[in-house]
Every structure is written in structure tokens, then in C-alpha cells.
Queue: 3 jobs
Job 1
Amino acid sequence: MLNRTRPFSHVLEQLRSVNLRPTRQRLALAKLLFEKPDRHVTAEALHKEAAAEGARVSLATVYNTLHQFTEAGLLKEITVDAGCSYFDTNITSHHHCYDEDTGALMDIPAQHLQVVGSPAIPEGKSIRRIDIVVRVGE
């Protein structure tokens, strides 16, 4: 049964406000993503979580939905390696610490890092955001 408590009802409205039809699959994935505190998930992990909850969605649908949510501004995609992206439910300005040994991705508040200087930006372009991933390991 669909739980319409906050923040899920808010996400339902967000889907509608960005013209994403609230399909069964989108709602099931949104419930998993947004009813918990801020988190970082891979498509594969979310797919397993959805299956464990009884949601019947393919891995391709999970990828498509995560990218649709990202394009709509509901998630941020954090690429840690060429073949590994995390999707972050915290869309505020912040950075990340990636543990290369465990695969854990943790938030670093924006005010804890300072960027001094920036590269020359091509004419007609502006910096949208700066994403920093601090990699740690043994």
C-alpha cells in the first residue's frame, strides 16, 4: 500500500510539478529513495532494495528513473569512477568523501571545503556548480 506521509507525498507532487507521470515504478522507487533520510544509492543497490520490497522493476527501469529524477532536479548524480555512479537524495550544495576500500560515499558540508581559484571558463559559459569527491583508502 502506498504510504502518503511526508516526505513521500511531497515527492509525488514534485513528480507532477516537473511533468513526470507518477507511474507505479516511479512511485515505488521514489518511496524507497525519499522516505528515508538523505542517502547515496547506486542503481544496482536500489534495484535489489526494490526487489526485496516486492516492487517488480527491471534494472533498466531503475537506471532510467534515476536519470529522469536527476534531470528533473530531484537527485544529484555523483560519478566516482567511469563505471560507478551514486545518486544522492541531498540536492543541496555539498561535496563527498568516497572510501575506495568500502565503496561508501559520505557527505562533506560545502562550508568544510574552500575552492580557491578556478580554471578559465569558455566565453559565454558560467560555472553551474563545483563537485568535489575526496577519495580515501588504506
Note: Helices lie at 8-17, 24-34, 43-52, 59-71.
Job 2
Amino acid sequence: MSSTAPFTVAIDGPAASGKGTIGRAVAEEFGFAHLDTGLLYRAVGFQVLRGQDPIQAAQTLKAEDLEAGDLRTAEVAQAASKAAAIPEVRTALLDFQRAFARRAGGAVLDGRDIGTVIVPQAEAKLYVTASAEVRARRRYTELVGRGDETTYDTVLADVLTRDARDAERATAPMKPADDAVLLDTSDLDIDTAVARALDVVRARLP
């Protein structure tokens, strides 16, 4: 592949499906740039929790905002999901994501609407999913490992709430692109899931 030719890998799916881990592994394997687009919305959500208007937060988002504070808390995740349902917020972040996706040398983006809205012309598309129970268990283990106080039932309820909000929103609902390869990680270890994703991308390289 020419080092200047755009090649976009779009990885969509619900929270804690493994798409971020897979996205980073794919980017590393092929030397592509990687963007966790959920971080954009988490950064907006973080600013909202600090009292900023969500639309203004999205319109003025800077690269350094992606490293501000702890963007991985459950509270920030809920604020991010609510902000993501606002059409003006999504519009404000659209150009940033599209420019990143078509940069020279290849890019991997993971999120909820990469293959359907952000880069429908992406050369490789994956929809990574897992059962809500499996995803809640993964997220619960992650949160407890970080010292957060929560319960599995609380995390499962949070996962189901976010799934419903992401899938039912009027603007860019979460769904697989028609030409995306479905990768269910419910019963896969991460190495197997990554290997399958790499095979999909490799088959589409020029």
C-alpha cells in the first residue's frame, strides 16, 4: 500500500465489546493512526459535568481535551452518551473525525457510527459486539480493578441504558453498516478476536 494512500478501517459496536482493544491492535499491526472516537464524546461529557454547554463544548474541543481528567469513569460515560444524542454535538465533531479517517498512511477509527455515517466509504468495516451480560462483566471487572465502587447489576443496567440510547437516537443510531463484517466476541479471547479482525483488514488491503 502506498504510504500516502488513504485506507480507513471503521470499527463500530456497543460499549465494552472489545472494539477499542481490537482497533489499537489493528493500528499497531499495519502502522495506521488510531482514533477512539468515543474519547471525543467523553471529553465533551467531561466538560458538561464541569458546567459547560454540550454544543459549545463540542464546537471548541481541542486535542488536549482528550487527555484532560479521567475520561473513563461511568459518570463521564453517561454524560458522553447523552451529549452524543444531540445532533449539533455530532455535527461539530464530524469534520474532525472525517479528516482523521482519510489522512495519508491509513487510519483506524472505532465508535458507534464510523462505517455508517463518518466514513461510509471506509475500505474495511467491522461491527464488534458481545452479549450485554458479557460486556457488563468486562466493564465491571475493569471498574473494580481501578478501585471504583460499583456492582455488576449497576454496570449491567448502565450498559443496557447506553445501548438503548445509542441505538434509538434520531441522529446516527448505532447499527452495523450493510457491508460490515460482524465479529461477536462473547465467546472469544482477545487474541482470537484480534486475529479475526486482522484477517478482515488484510483481505481488503490493496
Note: The radius of gyration is 16 Å.
Job 3
Amino acid sequence: MSLLSQEHMLGLNGYSEQDLITILDTAERMREILNRPVKKVPTLRGLTVVNLFFENSTRTRTSFELAEKRLSADTLNFSASGSAVSKGETLLDTARNIEAMKVDVVVIRHKSPGSPHFLSRHLDSIIINAGDGRHEHPTQALLDMLTLRDKFGSLKGLRVCLVGDISHSRVALSNIIGLKTLGASVLLCGPATLIPRHIERFGVEITHNLDEAIQNSDALNILRIQLERQSTGLFPSLREYHKYFGVNRQRLDKAASPLTILHPGPMNRGVEITSDVADSDHSVILRQVTNGVAVRMAALYLLAGGRAPSPESKPE
């Protein structure tokens, strides 16, 4: 039984302010476990989690796997390459066959938007969205929000700017929903060709001037150019993109106050961000990575903790 108002984590839409605060508060406690000499608790012992990844991933997959192991769950990793999927098996048949092996939680990444929602209607397992196409990436947004809360104490009234390829990013929508729910204001900055039409309905502001965005923000969350999801002709060249929307030290030095820099990774150094920014004291990028494990531990615990046969939290 979920300890949140939602049974699954398909996206952040529908999660209440209290739900998000509960996840972030729980993640802080999970982070304490990561700092112990023995970084493992038996909280989810007896549960089986499958990481069902139909797209390549390094950070997200590794982070989920580590979170599962820290909570003592049994972990099964699935890769589409070399599986029955490459022979024509459908997503649903694949998932049903895996669930028949008595899996409790399915963590899914898939190129098709809505894939986690589809599985939630056909499986009894708890579904966690690890990224579905251009749609959402809820745990990435949660770790971004935890990192900002660590830095600023609260998200209420915080001015956060998402810079870059908004149209092709699954991180952007989850961040917009989560940040707005917790009281932050959200500004989007990028070329007009990389900002979705009608995105203003989510209560965000838009600018195509990076220097203006820097002057009106407390934090920049810099998104990479996702060439693998783009059609051609959305901007003249990477060099020109960097000229107008690349975040560098010269631009940040003109800010009215020091900005906090986030990036969900992987970074294209020299395109959307320069090394002197990524490696500077303004950057909390490595903090995001640490918080990613804690947030995913929290999500697994809050969604699946009620199913675990042993809910204790003492070290093994």
C-alpha cells in the first residue's frame, strides 16, 4: 500500500504539495543512510524490482539500481537489445511475462510518451516512470527540487529558469509541474523553435534572451540539446546556439547575485554549458547525482514500503 496519495509514480501531475514534501523529507532521511558506514537497510527485503529500460541510460538506471540495493530489494535489469522485444514482442507481453515471475515494482524508461500509464492499466505491479519520451521524468525533477531546497531552504517564491531544449526534454515538464506545486516561479529560456507552443498554460513565463533570464533568476537548470530527438533546422548550428544560449562565466558574472547552476546530465560541454561554469562553486551538479539515489530510495519506499514483508529501517 502506497504511503502517498498515488499508487504509482507516472508523473508529477496529480501529486499534491503534501505528497511532494513527503517525498523530499523522506529523501533527506534516505540520504542519511547513504552517509552511514553501512549504506544498507532491510526496508524492502523480499521485494523484487525490475528496471525495464527500452532506451539507453547511465545515470538514471545506475541510480535506481543502487537505490534498490540500498533498500535490500532484489533487482532485475532488463535491456531491450538482445531480448524478445528485438524479435517483435510487444511492450505489454514483455511486461506481463516479467510480472508473471512475481515482480512487485516495474521501473520503466521508454521512448513512447504514456508508456508507464499504459502499463499501470494492465499490470498489478507498482509502476515508476524513469522517463517516457518527451513527456515526463518525475524522479529527475524531484532530485532537482531536493537540491534546490538544500540550497535555499524553501522553494516558495524561488525563481527558477529552465534553459535550453524545452520541447524535447522530459525533465522540463516534470520540473515545471513540481516547482509550481511547491510555490516556485518558472521561467523558460531558449530559441523559439525549442519551446513548445501553448506551454504558457502551465503558468510559466518565456524569454528568448539568456542575459535577461540570468538577471531574473535565482537558479538555472540547464538542459542539453537533444539532437537524437530533433528534426533538422531547429537552429543554425551548435556554435550559434552556444553564442546565444550557452551559459558561460562571462554571462554569470553580470548577474545581480550569484546563481545556482543545475544540469540533469549528460552535459554537452562547450554547447549549453562551459566547463568553467559546470565545475564552479555555483554548480550543484554532483549534488544532484547524490540526491538522485536518495530521491529514488524515497520513491521506492513510499510507493512499495507497504508491500515489503520487513519494514524495519535498522542497518543490517
Note: Residues 285-304 form the longest helix (20 residues).
